[in-house]
Every structure is written in C-alpha cells, then in structure tokens.
Amino acid sequence: MTIIRTLETGWSFTQVGGGQGTKDGEWLPVTDFPTTVHVELLQLGRIPDPFLGANEWEVQWIGESDWIFKNDFTITDADLAEPNLDLVFEGLDTYADVTLNGQVVAKAENQFVSYRVAVNQHLRLGSNDLEITFTSTFKKGRQLEKDNGKFHLWNGDSSRLHVRKAQYNYGWDWGPILMTVGPWKPISLHAYDIRIVDTDIRCKVSEILDAEVVVDVELSEDIPASISVILSEAGGKVIRCQDCVTLDSRRSQTQFHFSPGEVYLWYPVHYGKQPLYVLEVQVKDASGRTLDSRRERVAFRRVRVVEEALIDQPGKTFLFEVNNIRIFCAGSNWIPADSFFTAIKPQKYRAWLQLLVDGNQNMVRVWGGGMYEAEVFYDTCDELGILVWQDFMFGCGQYPAYDSFLKLVEVEAEQNVKRLRNHPSVVIFAGNNEDYQLAESLDIVDYTDETSDYRSTKFPARYIYERTLPSIVNKLCDIHYHRGSPYSAPGVPTTDPTLGDLHQWNVWHGSQERWQNWDKLSGRFVSEFGMQGFPNIRTVDHWLHGRRDERFPQSHLNNQHNKAAGFERRLELYLVENLTHEFDMNSYIYYTQIVQAEALSTAYRLWRRNWRGRGREYTSGALVWQVNIDGYHLVSTDVHMEQMNDCWPVTSWAIVDYFLRPKPAYFAIARELKPFTVGMTRKEEKTYTDEMSAASFTIETILEVWGTNSSLTVKKAKLELSLFELDSSWSDKYTMNVVLAPNSSTELFFGQLPGQPVRTKLNEVPRTIIASACLLDDTGCILSRSSNWPEPYKFIHFPSIKDLGLSIKTGNDGESIELSSEKPIKGIVLDVEGEDVRWSDQAIDLVPGDPQVIKAAGLGGRDVIVRFLGDGGGLNVTI
Ligand code: BMA
C-alpha cells in the first residue's frame, strides 16, 4: 500500500543574497505550508499589505529576487526498506531547482504541473535535507523572451508569454502585479511496492440514457496482481464489484453496463439531482494483500455541445445539452479568487460557488489567464450542479510554440485533463482566452489555412490550439474541445455572432455601444460581456486605509484600485448618457452600481428571450465578466460575508466584491434568471407618411412583453400589466392569462404602449409612462416582476421626495423590511451605517400597489439608508 507522508512542517525560507526585506543568510520560519513568499513575509510583518493604499508598488522586488525554501525530514530503516520512495511536488511556482542532500533531483519550470521524483538512491538514514531554489520568474521570463522573441499581448508584461505561470500575476485590467513564488501545493514522500499510475474512467450515457462505465487501469510495474473495481454510492453502498481483465503487461480493463435504475443521472442545478458515486480500484497480490488503491468520484451524464442549423436565422446553435435536455447557460466568468492561491481556503470556494447558485446561475467559466482551479472548486461544482467551462491557461497573447515551450504545454495539458476529466461538472475545454482575437487584431491569422503546421507562421500557437490540445483532450477523455473562447468555426473570425461563442465587449470596450442595444449585439453563446461598477463603500474605505482626504472618485488611491485602461472615461460615458448624477464618493458608488445593474440585467433579459425553443435557440448562454475579483485572505478562513477581510480591493467588472459583498448587479441578474420571468422592452417606431416629406411622420411607442420558463413543462400563469404616469395620477391595468412554453421564451404582447399618444413632432415630449409587469401563478404568488421606464433616465423629471409616499417598515424581527410607495421609484439600493447587512435583493423598482419585502440579515432594526434615481443625493429614512 502506498504510504504518503506530507512534508508540511519544519520549513524555512531565505532570500538569496538578502535584500530589501531580509538579511543575507537569514532563514525565516514558514507559517503555512504550502505557501508563497508574499504570504509569509506579510505574516512576519516584513512587508506592508500590498492591497492597502498603493502598497502594491512596495513589494515588486519580491518577484525579481531568488528564494530558497528548505526542510529536513527523517528517514527510518523501515522507509529505506521500501522498494520505491518518490518525492511528489504537486506544484512549484515556477522555476525551481530541487536538491536532496546536496544532489539536484528535479528542475521545475511550469507552475501548472506536478513532479514525481524517485529518490531512493538519494535518501539516507536519519535527517535528510531538501532545498528548493526558486529563480525569479520575471527575470527568467525576460531571458526567455530575449532568446525566443518578443510577441504581442493585451495585459501584463510580454515576457509572460514564454512562462507557464498564472498569467494574471503579471497584472491585468482588474488585478495587481504580484509575482508569486514558492512551493504553492503540497509536497510529500510516497513509499510503495507498486502503484496505480493511471485510471482512465469513462462514464458513458447513450442517447436513450443507458449508462455504462469502462475503466482502464495502468500499474507502475508488470507484476502478478489482481485488480478489482468497486462502484459505490456516495453513502458507501456497493453497486458493482468486478475484476479487471489484463490488456497488456501493465494495463487492465473492466466495464459495467447498468440496468435502468441501478445508477442515476447527474443533472445541472434546477434540472434534477447531482448523484455522485465512488469508483475504487484495488490492486492485490496473490495473498490478498492490498498493494495500492485509488478512489475517484464519478457521475453519469450525457453532455453534447450542439452546433446545428437554426430556423429563420443564419449560422448554427452553440448550446449545451445534458441528458438530452437543452440548457440555457447563464453564469459567470471566474478569475482566481485570490492573488495568493494558497490563502484561499475550501470554505471560501464553497461560499463563492454557493453565491453563484443562489443567484440562479448554472455555469462558470474558468478563464484562461488564471489557473486550473483547486480540486475543491470542481468538487463543489459537481455537488451543486454548476456546469464548468474550462479554458486552458493561455490568455490575450500571441503565444510561442517552440519545442521546449511545447513540451511544457503537452505535460501540462495531459496532467490537467487527467485531473479534471472525471468531474461531471466539466463540460467543455477551450484552447485559450481571446488569443484568436488578438491574432485577428494583428492581422496574423490566415483562416483559409486549415492544414499547415502553423509553427513557422506569426500565429504559432495555432499549433497548440488546433493540434496539441485537441489530440490530448480527445485521447484522454470524452469532453468536448473548442479551439478558444471566443471561437466561431474553422475559417470564420471570432466576431461572427452566428457561430460558436462570442465575447461581446462593444459595450464598455470596442465601439462603446449603448447597453440598450444588447439585443442587436447578441451571439449564439455570449461567453463574456460586462460593465464596471464600484464596490461597496466599506470596500473602498478598506483600500483607502484611513486616508479620508482620498475619499473622492478621482483620487489617486481610487485610481490605483481600478486597473482598466480608460475607466474614468467609460464609467462617465455610461453615466452621462443615461443618468444625472452627483459626484461625491457615496453617490458615485451608487450611480456606477446602478448603471452596472441596469446594463447587465438588460443583457440577460434580452438574451434569454432569444432562447425560443427547439430550432430557435438563437442565444444559448450568457456569462457575465466577471463574478469575482482576485484578492487575498490571509487570516480568517471563515466564510461569513461580514468577516471576509484582507482581500484585494478594486473597482472592476465583478458583480460581487472582494468581501463577498454582492453589488446590486448580482441581484438584478438573479431576478432575470429565475425559473419564470417576465421581460419588457420599448421601442420607438418612426414612420414617414409621405416619402417626399421629412416633416410628416408618426412616432409610435411599442411595448413588447414576453415570458420565460426554464422548467420542462408548460406553465400557466397570469400576467398583470400596470401603467403609471410619473407626473400625474393616471394609471391603467390589464390582466391576461398566459401559457409559457417549456424551456423557452414566449411572446406575450406587442403593441402601442398604453397611454402613450402617437407623436407627430420631435418636440412633443412623450408622457413619462412606467410599465410594470407581474407574473403570478394560479395561487396568486408572484413568480416574477419587471418594470420598464422610458430611457434615457436623465430626461425624467423625478417627483419630489415628499410626493413619493415611500414607506419603509421593519418586520417584527428587525431583519426584514417592507417597501411601498405611491409613485413609481427606480433603482432602490439599501444600506445602513456600520456593519453590513445581507440583503435578499437590491436595485429594485417599486410601483404603487405592489409592496416588496426584502430580507435583511444583520439589520438588527437599524435605520435604513435608501438611494434611488432622483433622490437628490441620498435619503436617510428613519424607521
Ligand atoms: C476580457 C477578458 C479579460 C479582461 C476582460 C475585461 O476580454 O478575457 O482579459 O480582463 O475582458 O477587459
């Protein structure tokens, strides 16, 4: 049996030659293991917190220094008697020479891989010295760049393209430059007779949803052994147990076909349960002694990426089908949740992913500029039913493909595909993030060439994305491979909205379109789009770190905590186009958050409408950029939101900030992703009555109303459509019974906006009519609400606050509030002084006759601060 001894205590580290933070020859104790240098120096108080103020720039020397980590461990006679002794390094960041008792035993050059080294001949009885010398990744990268060429990129230092390390460590448009260094994953000593080298498990589900599993086992040596495979339920009940048949000297195989009801299928969240099984491989000798065993968690599901012709529209679908159910994928892009990977604890991963599910999302994309995530990330996705889109770790770059680089990539891809392939949540591998887009921007991609080797072209990494990675993925698993994100189809540019996936950045970046035009900017699967919004004021105060004089939107420290090029212009562009706004710190936070909430919820609303049923899946997914921001978390491992501190604080596209405080956009999106929703849009239609005249026309205001239903059955509901004029007491109401088709959207109304006269002159100001729709089930329970206001909001003359009839009542327990009003109110965001509250909703609109109750965990009966459009700078409502 393999005996594993983890080397996690007794480590110390030093800076080679000493430097800014340490003295030459000074060995410092390691507090946490695995670890990296910044984390340790911070624990020791040797560096300032890089996430406060502008301290990022005080710690840049760390990444340009060399570091040694050392440990001594004891070896006994019994250890030495073992036939095999291996040191296993699960992850070294990044360039490292490992010596054992003075002998070099390993050289590492890829952060994303593990290393196993046979060390029998280097070990001695008693104390053994292990030393790992990390050479500066940044300097090594610069040398590689000198030797192999400088290439183009977006974000970071161009030397990163030669280095297999988390690319965002070089700085990104939401992240600081922090070049981590150190033994970032566990190190252990393995003693064994023989070991299982690989278990290739293929859980297959046929078109008629029959399940089977085929298991291939590979041993380290050819010795007489019996190999059995046991499949059990998660609770331990054995379902099948069977011996393998020998395939060749070291490989054996077995397979199980299941009868109906023997195993259950795994479904994405909201579509069914997530039954998980344990598959154990046992290797025994003739006397029945266990030589090795391995346990893997598995599940059964049939996943297809369907690319087929559409009715009435060009191109093809790009949709995920699970167990024959077509799924509208609504989710988020995921960047590493921490600048210092070792500081993110399992509970924090779980808290993030739970937040995603609570926000009615069902997919997460592990973005290519980060890292292949920790095991717990995928385990949690398996358990919660979150679908994972997994990029390979290449992002926004013109990557090389010279031999030594390619070799690193091959090992990395093989190891990581093997590590991830048994997770039922992982449904797609994509070759890279935006590398085809970058190549298109440089005009170095020849889409007519599908056959050459590419390595001698200006886009050499096509070899990686179109040869290396697909062949590894297809050899090692049954998961779909996609050349990149975005990628349309062979021969077609990535901006084609009718094929493959699309990154829609023409809102914010690119041509800076209005978000109201998301419907014209749709794609078959929008895997990125976003809008920035400031985080919570407490988060801003955290990075200001007591600097009250910097507490204004344009301050130096607020700029330091926004890494996006041109962010001031873009934030302001979307503000001035849509709102009138004040410019004090609190107001700026509120208004940018409302813009973000409006922009992102509008996208989900309009794109979900495009999921129109079989053959009409015009848009099959929308993944917001981005769910999280990276940060670090050194001290607390607690997951309660109010205790999340010490993280990287920044203004970014994130919908949840680094304290795991959701921004209003998080809630606005969640409302659009409920199982049943109602959506509205209004459009002006100008018709010329005489083709010879430009002065004679009519302008009609058209209201369109639709419903969505993500369940698999027809939903009967009642639609109540109420209309209010903001500056009069006029109102109107319509009720109709509606039937929502299963797993699609259904059009419910198209016509002139009630109450809005047809205009014949451009100076006729339209009435400020607000439409409010409610979808109710047959018990009168509200399934969904939506309101539609005339835009842009900046034209609206909001009523004075005293005329609103706004009432805020606290529930008896002091932990909920009921909001009601006598006039429509747009964009309500709630807050309190002091400790944050966990609100169940934010960025809501109110209309007369429809009070809303919001849960407020932690409110404790405190006064509520209410912001809304037209509030004149904030209203402190005393309850
Ligand atoms: C996307 C991403 C990231 C970037 C984001 C915001 O295209 O792939 O590289 O952080 O845009 O600019």
Arrangement of strands in the largest sheet: 3-2-4-9-6-7
- Calculate Rg over CA atoms: 29 Å
Bound molecule kinds, no repeats: beta-D-mannopyranose
CATH architecture of the domain at 3-190: Sandwich
Give the overall form: globular
Assembly annotation: single chain
What is this structure, in a nutshell?
This protein has 879 residues and is of the alpha+beta class. Among the domains are: 3-190, Sandwich (Jelly Rolls); 206-298, Immunoglobulin-like (Sandwich), CATH 2.60.40; 676-795, Immunoglobulin-like (Sandwich); 801-878, Immunoglobulin-like.
Overview of the structural elements:
- The protein is an alpha+beta fold.
- Among the domains are: 3-190, Galactose-binding domain-like (Jelly Rolls, Sandwich), CATH 2.60.120; 206-298, Immunoglobulin-like, CATH 2.60.40.10; 676-795, Immunoglobulin-like, CATH 2.60.40; 801-878, Immunoglobulins (Immunoglobulin-like, Sandwich).
- Helices cover 17% and strands 31% of the residues.
- The protein contains 13 helices and 46 strands.
- The strands form twelve sheets. A six-stranded antiparallel β-sheet has the order 3-2-4-9-6-7.
- Strand 24, helix 4 and strand 25 (363-366) form a beta-alpha-beta unit.
- The termini are far apart.
- The protein binds beta-D-mannopyranose.
